Amino acid sequence: SCTGLRNLLQGLNFSFKYYSSINHLQTTCPCSKIKAKKCHILNCSGCTCTRRTAPPGSILPWKFFSCKEGTRISSKRKQNTSVVTSELLHKNLLKSEQENWYDISPIYKPMTKRIKEKIEELHNKCTTFNSESPRMRFGENVYFEENGCIFLSRADDDEGNVDILFSADDLGFSDAFIQRIRISPDQRYMAISLKSESSEEANCVIMELGHFPVVKKVIPSVFSFEWATSDVLYYTTQKNLKCQNVFMITFTNEKHTKLVYTEQDARFFVDIYLTKDRRFLTINSNSKTTSEVWLVDCRKPFELPALVQARTKGVIYHIEHRNEELYILTTYGEPAEYKLMKAPVASSSKENWQLVYALEKKTKLVDFEMFSDDCIMFLKNAGHLYLNVISFISQSVQSIKLPTWACEFELESHPEHTTSTCYFQLSSPVHPPKRFAYSFKENNLIEQAVQEVPIITNCHTTRLLAKSKDETLVPITVFHNTNSKELHRKPLLVHVYGAYGIDLNMSFKEEKLMLIEEGWILAYCHVRGGGELGLSWHKDGCQHNKLKGLHDLKACIMLLHKLGFSQPKHTALAAASAGGVLAGALCNTDPELIRAMVLQAPFVDVLNTMMKTHLPLTIEEQEEWGNPLEDEKCMKYIKSYCPYQNIKPQRYPSVFITAYENDQRIPLTGVLQYVQKLRKAALDHASRTSKKGNWIPNIILDVQANGSHCDSSWEHSVSE
After folding, report:
1. Cα dist from 151 to 33, 35, 133, whole Å
2. CA nearest neighbour of 61 among 393, 303, 423
3. What pLDDT score does 452 carry?
4. Could you tell me if 655 and 622 lie in one domain?
5. Known catalytic residue at 577
6. Is residue 598 a part of any domain in this protein?
7. 184, 193, 577, 708: which is the annotated catalytic residue?
8. Measuring CA to CA, how many Å separate 280 from each of 345, 370, 601?
9. Residue 381 neighbours by CB under 8 Å, 6+ apart
10. Same domain assignment for residues 398 and 527
11. Shared domain check, 667 and 544
C-alpha cells in the first residue's frame, strides 16, 4: 500500500520501528522446502561522499562517486561547564528514578503476572480465530512474511510447499523486524528493510533471488526505497530523524551509486513512492504544511527528475498516474481539504489542475489506492468509516458505509494495479483485524468469515458528541461490555492525542479487550489538533489554538461522567507522545476529573524543547507548536498550557510514565525533570494540608533501557 501517502495524510509524523546494525553479511543461500504456517501482513547511510551545496530541494547533476560503506567521520566536541553540569544532573535524576522504580515495581509483580497471562491468552485466541493473513502476489508467485522469514509459494500449489527466501536470524539480524519488502519488476531482486527496537534507523538488505538467494548488498540508515526498473533501486537515507538525500544504485555489471536529490530546508522530509502503474517514481519533499514532488520516468531512470509543481506554502500534494495523466491528491484551492485533481504529464503545474472529486466538509481522507480503471478512497466521517469508489470509465462515485464497529483501516499491498479486487483490513481497539475485499467486477463488499472471540460479541460501541467551551461538538467513541450493570461504578480509561493532524490510535490491542472483559469502559476523545474531522480539525487545534484541544478533552470527560459512564474517582487518562501535552495540561488545570494518568514517552516540556534548535525535530515542529524563540506571544501561549511549566502544589492524580533512555524524539531529561517537579508539588500540597481523606499520589517513572519512541514488538509490548 502507499506508505508515503499514508504518512502524508497522517500529518507527516514519520515513526517507524526496528533497526539492526551490522558491518558485513556473508553471501548465503537460505533456500529450503517447508510447510506453510500462518503469515502476517506485509508492510510493504554510513557513507562518506563529496557533494556540493545546493539550494533547497535541488536536483543534483548526475555524477559518479565512490560510496565506502561503514566509514564514519570522527568529531570532537568541546564540553563547557554548563554541558558537564547538565549531564551530571541528568545522570543523578536518572539514577534516582531507577532506584525508585526498583523499590516500587515488586509490589505490582502478582498483578503483572496475572495481566501478562491474560493478554497472552487473548492473543492466542485472536490469532487462532484470525489466522488467515494476506499475501503479496506477482503473477503466479506469492510472497509472504512470518516470524522474520520471507517465503515464496506458487498460487496454484495446494500442498502448502514454500521456499524460504530470507531469514533474519540466519543472516545475523536476530534482533530485527522486517518493516518493508519491495520486489523488482522481473522478480530477480528483493529489497528488505530491517529495524531493531532500540533505533529508528533501518538497514536495507538487497537479495538476488533465484534457485539460491544471495545477499548482494546491505545499505545502512535507509528510510524508503523503490525499484525504478528491474536493476535500479532508488532510496532515501535517514540521519537524526531526518531524510534529506535520495540515492540511486544500479545492479548491472558496473555497480554505481549516485546522489540524485538533496533537501536543504530542515522543515522538509524526503521519501520516495512508485506510482501504481510503475510508470513514475516520485521524490516527495514534505513539511507539515507544504509539498514538492519530482518525477523520475521509470522508462528512463538515468534522466534528471522533472518538477511537478514548485513548493507553495500551504499546498500539500501527492502524485499518481494513469493514461498519461497525473492524478493529484492535494489541498490546493478552497476549501483547504483534500481533493482529487488531474493534469497532463507534460503540463503539470497547478494552473492546469482540474478537479475530479472533492471531499465533503469535516471528512478525513485516511488512505487512497489507484487502480487501472478506478480509485478507492478510505474516508472517515462523524466517526464512521466509508469506501468511496471512483470509476474513471463511468465517471461515477459509489459510497459504501463500512461496519459500525470499525475504527481503523489497513490497506493491503496490491502490486498489480490491474487487479479486479481491493483487499483491506478493519479493526477497532477491541476487534482484531478482519479481512474485507471490494470487487470492482461484482461491485460489492466481501467479508472474510472468521470465528469471533466470545467477549467481542458482547462489546458495545457508542458514539457521542461533547460540546466544548466554544460550542464545537467533539466526537467520542465509547466501548463497554453489554453485560455490565451500573456503569457509573465501573472504571473508565480515557484516551487522547490531539496533535499533528493524526487520528487517535484505535488499532486492536489485546489489553483493551482484556479491560472490556473485566468490566472497564474505554473512551476515545477525538479532540481538535488531531485529524479525525479533516485538515481544518487539525488547524483548529495547533499553534495558537492548542488550548482548544484541552477544552475539548475536559468537555469529553465531563460528558462521560454526566451520562453515567463511571465517575472521577474511577477514571484514568491515557496518552502517548504528543498526547502527553493535553493529558499533562488537564492534570494541572482539572486534576479532580481523574484519579490516575498513564503516559508513554510523553511530550511534557514543550517550551524548553521548542527553545532548543539543536534538537533534531525542533525546526520541523514549529509548524505545529510555533516558534517561541522569535515570537514572544507564542512563548507566552506555550507557557500557558505546557505541562511542566504549570505544575503547582495541589492534589494530583497518581501518575505512571514509561520513558526510553535512547528516545530521539522526546528528550529523557525533560521527562525526568517533569516527574521530579510533579512529585515535589504533590508532596508540598500534602504537607500543607490536613484535610480529611488527604492522600499522596503514586508518581512512578519506568525508564526502559531498550525500546524507542516508536511502537514495540509484540513481545516487548506485552512486557510493558
Report:
1. 10, 10, 14
2. 303
3. 66
4. yes
5. yes
6. yes
7. 577
8. 11, 13, 39
9. 360, 362, 363, 364
10. no
11. yes
Which grid coordinates belong to 388?
Answer: 468511496
pTM: 0.84
420 belongs to the catalytic site: no
Clarify whether residues 515 and 638 are in a common domain. Answer: yes
Convert the pLDDT of each residue in 662-688 to its tens digit.
888 888 999 999 999 999 999 999 988
CB 364 within 8 A of CB 526: no
Here the cell at position 85 is 553540569
Q: Report mean pLDDT in 10-residue bins for the chain, 720 residues.
A: 54 34 30 34 34 42 33 40 74 90 90 91 76 69 87 82 87 81 93 83 91 91 95 94 93 86 93 94 94 96 95 95 95 90 95 94 91 93 91 92 92 80 92 90 84 75 96 96 91 97 92 93 97 93 97 98 97 96 98 97 95 88 94 96 97 95 87 95 88 79 79 71
Helix, strand or coil, per DSSP, at residue 378:
strand
How many angstroms separate the CA atoms of 304 and 76, rounded?
A: 38
Q: What is the pLDDT of residues 6-63, one digit of tens each?
A: 555 654 443 322 222 222 223 333 333 333 333 333 433 333 333 333 345 545 444 3
Could you list the beta-strand ranges (E) of 371-520: 374-381, 384-391, 396-401, 408-411, 421-428, 431-439, 444-447, 459-467, 473-481, 492-496
Tell me if residue 14 falls in helix, strand or coil: coil
Looking at residue 517, its amino acid is E
Amino acid at 586: L
Total tally of structural domains belonging to the chain: 2
Last residue of a domain, one of 426, 455, 484: 455
Q: What is the CATH number of the domain that holds 530?
A: 3.40.50.1820
The b/e string for 587-626 (b: 16+ C-beta within 10 A; e otherwise) is bbeebebbbbbbbbbbbbbbbbbbeeeebebbbbbbbbbb
Instruction: Enter the DSSP assignment of 545.
Output: G
In-domain check, residue 670: yes
Name the 3-class secondary structure at 421. Answer: strand
Q: Is 561 a catalytic residue?
A: no
Among residues 1, 566, 709, 712, the one annotated as catalytic is: 709
Same domain? For 435 and 464 the reply is no
Which distant-in-sequence residues (6+ apart) come within 8 Å of 88 by Cβ? none
Residue 292 lies in a domain: no
Whether 523 maps to a domain, the answer reads yes
Residue 380 makes CB contacts below 8 A (sequence gap 6+) with: 363, 364, 366, 386, 503, 532
Sheet of 384-391, strands arranged across: 363-370, 374-381, 384-391, 396-401
Catalytic hit among 663, 685, 708, 712: 663
Q: For residue 443, what are the domain limits?
A: 363-455
